Amino acid sequence: MNREVRVRFAPSPTGPLHIGGVRTALYNYLFAKKHGGKMLLRIEDTDQKRFVPGAEEYISEALEWIGIKIDEGTQIGGPHAPYRQSERKHIYRQYAEKLIADGNAYYAFDTDQELEEMRKRLEAAKVVAPSYNSITRMQMKNSLTLPDDEVKRKLAAGEPYVIRLKVPRKEEIRLHDLVRGWVMVHSSSIDDKVLMKSDGMPTYHLANVVDDHLMQITHVIRGEEWLPSAPLHVLLYKFLGWEESMPQFAHLPLLLKPDGNGKLSKRDADAGGFPVFPLDWKDPQTGEIYMGFREQGYLPEAITNFLALLGWNPGTEQELFTMDELIENFSIERISKAGAKFDINKAKWFNQQYLRKIPDTELAQTLKKQLEEKKIPHSSYNMEKIVSLIKERIVFHSDVWKEALFFFIAPQQFDPESVRTKWSSEAANIIAEFKKALNNLTDIKAENIKTILHQTAESSGLKIGKVLPALRLAITGAIAGPDLMAIIEILGKDETIARINYALQNINHKIPT
Ligand code: GLU
After folding, report:
1. What is the largest CA-CA distance in the chain?
2. Is the CB of residue 86 less than 8 Å from the CB of residue 46?
3. Which CATH number is correct for 416-510, 1.10.10.60, 1.10.10.350, 3.50.50.60, 1.25.40.10?
4. How many Å separate Cα 377 from the centre of its chain?
5. pLDDT at 221 over 70
6. Shortest-distance atom of ligand 1 to CA 204
7. Active site includes 69?
8. pLDDT at 505
9. What is the layout of strands, in order, in the sheet containing 172-177?
10. If you count Cβ atoms within 10 Å of the first and of the last residue's Cβ in the chain, which end, N or C, has fewer?
11. 250 C-alpha to ligand 1 centroid (Å)
12. Under 8 Å CB-to-CB from 30, ≥6 apart: which residues?
């Protein structure tokens, strides 16, 4: 059988999409595109209590930002519309009723209080995991225990009820997961899950399976937290007679805390000062702010690349991948079973790599804009030269101006610790000599500046390594940075000399080396 590959990303709009969800969407997308298939976006909003306004829009925006193109879904429609489960409510009931008719599900009329009493009874009897299951169901109020006419009467009277799956008592459920291999679960460990709630809405399990079937999904790629639900879904496929076309499962490894101890949470992110959400989000109910990678200055290409390697490896040393390269190289076989440690420094590294790919002309525009926004005068310097010099040092696009700031604002004060370690009266003397030589230099080019600096240092017998840091301190106010000769070339003769004069007057010469 050669079916077209069809995958879906099926988030619930209960808040901002966690970065783990973005990774799930990405892996689905890569897999679909690799196999020339389709990627669906289905919104699983059957739990009305957890619905959060704006969350669906957030999800679409996040996917778009990362570069995932949806083929069918809530926004663009498609042959299986609607793609929002709350709008498909009428579809699910018939399947729940078919399950009842076939003896695989039943009506349950128990009130919350009765359920609570059952739980207490079972706890008192020291039952380990008290649940509504193949044993306990027989003591409850449902269509398996009540006489038929009473069930009919209750239904006709409109008494509230739920529909529960009749999980077989002794059955071994086997499923093959493309990441984990064979998974075996005994049915006695599964409770009689609710399929239809008393408000007439299906639960996740029923809606998910029905939709995956109707939407002809071939592969279910989702987070590991759904693995425990998979055997139940297998049962549903079987009971509904859809075993033949059941999708293949691939459960993705968890994203772990930076130290590898447990699941990555918002709390870890807040403590570490890094985002775990793609975009900024303000909770409409609590007002709580969730910071996003986008607003923190991460490039979407960098986050895509970072996420792709968080749980998957290409089997080579290659680390930088465009989306097309990811599609070409992606395979489920290379997804790891072990959880992936979330290392924000790696995300920063990727960001740096992608920033370096931005053309100087474009970065120069960014720099100009940022300086204007910050009201920093930017004289007549060659912006392209400046960005090409500082490029390697920028982690975030939004920080271009910070790395370039010393070009526009001459140092006013000098850090005492830098002065103590890098300045000396010998160095100051040479810097004064160098200033004179620079004044006489006609062609202010980095290599010429270097020549006169070396000549000045050599003639005094002081090592260049003693002079350079002091000169850098005088000119930039810092003890590290890009090539100093190139900096001087950009600043020009007058500005350099003015800065040297200021430093010579303001830094204490007598500090011993
Ligand atoms: N609605 C589920 C979620 O919020 C979907 C799980 C699945 O992909 O089956 O993640």
Report:
1. 111
2. yes
3. 1.10.10.350
4. 37
5. yes
6. 1
7. no
8. 95
9. 72-73, 38-41, 6-9, 219-223, 248-252, 172-177, 181-186
10. N
11. 13
12. 308, 326, 327, 330
User: Ligand 1: distance of its center to the CA of 204 in Å?
Assistant: 8
Alpha helices (H) in 357-399, listed in sequence order: 360-373, 383-390
Instruction: State the amino acid at position 257 in one-letter form.
Output: K
Tell me, what DSSP letter sits at residue 140?
A: S
Measured from the CA of 9, which atom of ligand 1 is nearest? 8
Locate the domains of the chain by residue range: 358-408, 416-510
Per-residue buried b or exposed e for 258-296, using 16+ beta carbons within 10 Å of the residue's own CB = beeeeebebebbeeeebbbbbbbbeeeeeeeebbbbbeb
Q: Identify the three-state secondary structure at position 471.
A: helix
> Mean pLDDT across the chain, nearest whole number?
95
Residues 18-71 have pLDDT tens digits of 999 999 999 999 999 999 999 999 999 999 889 999 999 999 999 999 999 999
CA dist., res. 317 & res. 195, Å (int) = 47
**CA pair distance 239, 95, nearest whole angstrom:** 10
Q: Is 192 helix (H, G, I), strand (E, B) or coil?
A: coil
Looking at the CA of residue 208, tell me the nearest atom of ligand 1.
9
Give the pTM: 0.91
Residue 351 CA to residue 398 CA, distance in Å, equals: 12
* Residues framing ligand 1 (Cβ under 6 A): 10-12, 44, 204, 208, 222, 226
Tokens read off for 221? 């790629």
